[in-house]
Amino acid sequence: MAPSEMRVAAVTPDRAWARAIERASGEPISLCYACGICSGSCPLASMMDLLPSRLMKAVQLGLRDRVGRAVSPWLCVACETCAVRCPNGIDVARVMDAVRHDAAAKRVSARPDVDAFHRWFLWTVRMFGRAHEGLLSAGYGLQQRRLRRDLPTGLVLLRRRRLALLPHLIRRRREIGRVFRQTVGRARTRGGAGG
Amino acid sequence: MKPPAATLIACTCGDALRGCLDFERVTGAGGTGPALVVRDFCLPEGRAKAAAWLREAAARRVVVAACGAPMAAAALADVATRVGLDVSRTVLVDVREGCAWVHTRGAQATDKAIRQVRAAAAGLAEAVAAPAPIERTLSDAALIIGRGPAAAAAAARLQALGSKVIVLDPPGSGGPDSSEPGHGGLNAHARVCGTLVSLDGDAGNFQARIEGPDGTADLTVGAVIVAGGPARKAAQPEDLTAVPLSDLEQGLADGTDDALPSEQGVVFIMDDVPWPAVTASTLGVALRLVRDRQCHCLVLFRDLGVAGAGLEERYREARAAGVAFVRLGPSAPETARTADGRWSVRVEIAGVGLMTETADLIVRCTTPGPPDVVGLRQVLGVGSGAGTIGQRMFLEPVFTERAGVFWIGAARAPVTEDQAVRQGEAAAMAAVLAMTPAASARAPAVVDTERCALCLTCLRVCPHHAVTIGPGPAMQVLVSTCLACGVCAAACPAGAIQVVDAPGRRLLVEVDALLDPPPPAGDGGLVIVYACANSAMPAAQALGRLRRSYDERVMLVPVPCLGRVETIHALRPLVAGAARVLICGCFDGSCEHVVGPQRARGVAARASAVAEALGLDPASIEVAAVAPVDWHRLAALLPVAGAVESPGGQGVRPLAADHVAQGAAYGAE
After folding, report:
1. How much helix, strand and coil, in percent to the nearest 5, is found in chain A?
2. Are strands B527-532 and B475-477 parallel, antiparallel or unpaired?
3. Does residue B503 have a pLDDT over 70?
4. Edge to edge, what strands does the sheet with B215-221 contain?
5. More confident residue, B525 or B112
6. What angle do CA B500, B505, B511 make, to 5 degrees?
7. Are A54 and B316 inside 8 Å of each other by CB?
8. Distances (CA, A) of B299 to A132, B267, B319
9. How far apart are CA B491 and CA B486, in angstroms?
């Protein structure tokens, strides 16, 4: 972002939102003193636009719009290196999670493709009790209009029997539905929304 | 005119030296007069016998040939005191560790002992009369200017060390104010209220003039410790919109002020590096506003400085309570009035972007400047160069360029309480030293005011800052600071400085006597080793105690510091027929007198150049460093017994190349 652009886009803090994220994540976000150890240890930091420590500062101050624009939460793979190293014992990955939940609940995402991938993934789990890569990539590919790009790889995987055509069904599939209803419901009451 | 011969006392060390030294030859050596041989000079019987004999012989100069043990030196001092002889009129020659125990070949040890006794006698004859001891009473009172933890620590330590403490209260303070938080309870023998207007004299004997509301007072103090001064008022914030932190703090303390914010946004702006106290009170105020009054607090800071100030816990508490902290970028925060009468603060957060915070109150956490010590500096005559005290803070943590004046605590820089206490204690110790004559053990250097040319050489070379421009047109050596290393005496171009035990000329006479008569030709000549009393001499004595034999032609000439050896001392032995000159002392950095090794290298470089011009071997003048315990190294430096050394041969280890280069660089200065 160019400095001039930054100057225009001064954001106002939304403290209620900051508190909601803090509650939803269950992490002591206000304890963060922006030492930057999380940013230094994050394997994806080079791809992030808002480094984890700066995202923490933005969340802490309630800079909701700035966090909403950031793709960092959608790139986080929850490897938890930051959580292991944080001197204040904050699980940054969980904060990223809470930010994602918040955005997902409002159907806004800085990276809609990542959001869609998550949703398709969870849909297969909900349907069959475990993930099914074939349907996941088919649905995701159709929605994101990248089927043509993914298809050759998919065919190779099929031929080598790395991709199953039919999903593996688990026993007592109804239980999964109940788990989903319960967890999504709890996530709602905690302020975020299930993906 | 030949001076009357010195009296000789030779100690046989029980019977330990009888088999090694021929005492008849030693006592019969030319250059000394009557002689006495005692069995045990260091024991009470030996001392009594020696004292009685000296009294009977009405001795005026005494050479004692004994051992290098400290007991011998103590015994000599004791005997000299008993017979009323000045210690400077006596000299101790180490013939045990230096001769008897290391030279076992025939009569060689006796020959060397005779040379050394003769040299000592010649040196004594050359010795100048001891400079009259400076009769001065040193004050044992220290004046402490300022209050605070540093001053309190200094006062407490001074009193524990038995010194008096006089506290100077700023005018208008109305004397001791123990209600002042953190500043009360400063224990003192006396309190003076007023302003210091002049300080004359030197360390140990300052004349301080203090102007107070009731008139002028003159005090004699031994040291001055500046721990603070008249505190400077906190700079008023430029915009009247901002509230000083102290007002808010006061209001919270009273708990009565209705104007205090409640459920509002408060922005604290800390635009400079604050003193720990400012950070502490900012954190405290923000914490209370958040907790008790449900405010939203945002602290904009550049450097909180919580680490090391013991504020980590409070910082954490404030963060946990929800106080937001933002480190300011290069740009200052912009404040503007909004339509509804509130404030909008625009601040740039590094890596995140711009943020606009709406606040009801802006608090300026201004750091009160350092105490106003500019006037004090002029009065005390310190810190004349711009920021001298600050620049040399790490080198001289409590000292100033004026001996006896110490600068600590808040007067110096923002310090934590812990640092202040440590500085206070350090200053107290240094002040006590300044008030005690350090020279009680060694007679200090004395300047001959008639001959002093005021060239300021001594001022430059003195490693201990013991030289000042005295009263009148001459230099003066501070009794309390001088350690009698003799560096100034060696450097003085006018020869105006005398140090009792070995000024340059005496050293020269000793060396001449050592080389007289010259050793028989074909024997390779003598090796003169100028040995630093702090390193090379102890190492040589260790060699002696271990009976590690080395060549008899090695003549040790003890000097208090290598800095005392001048070019002529390095050259003269060569001219007089010595084979080599080894200047052996401390390593760089371990010299008690700081400059000894550097000076020695410079001397060696210059002397080598002259030697070359004279057709002598320039490589025969060398400098080496040994540690006092490192007899191994010294043994490697000295020629092995029986080896006929030749210049450039294997006898004496050649100088390291870098030492030569450094010495040349020094000499070129």
Report:
1. 65, 0, 35
2. unpaired
3. no
4. B195-202, B205-212, B215-221
5. B112
6. 110
7. no
8. 51, 6, 10
9. 9
Q: Are A13 and B355 within 8 A, CB to CB?
A: yes
Question: What residue of A is the nearest CA neighbor of B345?
Answer: A12
- Tokens 């430096």 belong to which residue? B637
Q: Token digits for B240?
A: 């009247």
CA–CA dist B166, B420 (Å, integer): 19
Q: Is a pLDDT exceeding 80 seen at residue B202?
A: no
Backbone φ and ψ for B143, nearest 5 degrees, come out as -95, 125
Q: Give pLDDT, residue A57.
A: 93
pLDDT score recorded for residue B669: 40
Cα nearest neighbour of B354 on chain A: A10
The DSSP bridge partners found for residue B532 are B559
Is-contact A89 A130, C-beta < 8 A? Answer: no
Q: Long-range CB contacts (< 8 A, 24+ apart) of B395-399?
A: B397/B423, B397/B426, B398/B423, B398/B426, B398/B427, B398/B430, B399/B430
Per the CB < 8 A criterion, the answer to whether A32 and A56 are in contact is: yes
Q: Are B300 and B333 in contact (CB under 8 A)?
A: yes
Q: Which structure tokens are listed for A57?
A: 């500062």
Q: How many CB pairs under 8 A join A and B?
A: 63
Contacts A7 to B, Cβ<8 Å: 354
Q: Name the residue in chain A with its Cα closest to that of B351.
A: A54
Among the partner-chain residues B298, B321, B352, the one whose CB lies closest to the CB of A63 is B352
Strands B467-469 and B195-202: unpaired
Which residue type, as a one-letter code, is found at position B445? A
**A51: distance to nearest CA of chain B, Å?**
8
Cβ-defined contact of A57 to B355 (cutoff 8 Å):
no
Cβ-nearest to A6 among B325, B327, B354: B354
Structural element, H or E, at residue B157: helix B149-160
Residue of B nearest to A51 (CA): B351
Q: DSSP secondary-structure letter at A166?
A: S
Out of A114-128, B268-282, B646-660, the most confident range is A114-128
Q: Is pTM beyond 0.90 here?
A: no
Q: Which residue has the tokens 């914010």?
A: B261
Looking at the complex, report in whole angstroms how far the Cα of residue A12 sits from the nearest Cα belonging to chain B. Answer: 5
Nearest to residue B277, comparing CAs of B319, B254, B305? Answer: B305
**Which amino acid belongs to residue B306?**
V
- Residue by residue, DSSP assigns B349-387 as ETTTEEEEEEESEEEE-PPPPSP--HHHHHHHT---STT
Numbered residues of chain B with Cβ closer than 8 Å to any chain A Cβ: 296, 298, 315-316, 319-327, 346, 348-358
Task: Tell me what the mean pLDDT of segment A109-130 comes to.
Answer: 88
Residues of A with CB under 8 A from a CB of B: 1, 6-7, 9-13, 15, 28, 30-34, 50-51, 54, 57-58, 60-61, 63, 66
Interchain proximity B353–A57, CB inside 8 Å: no
Nearest CA in chain B to A39: B351
| CA–CA distance, A33 with B316 (Å, rounded to integer) | 9
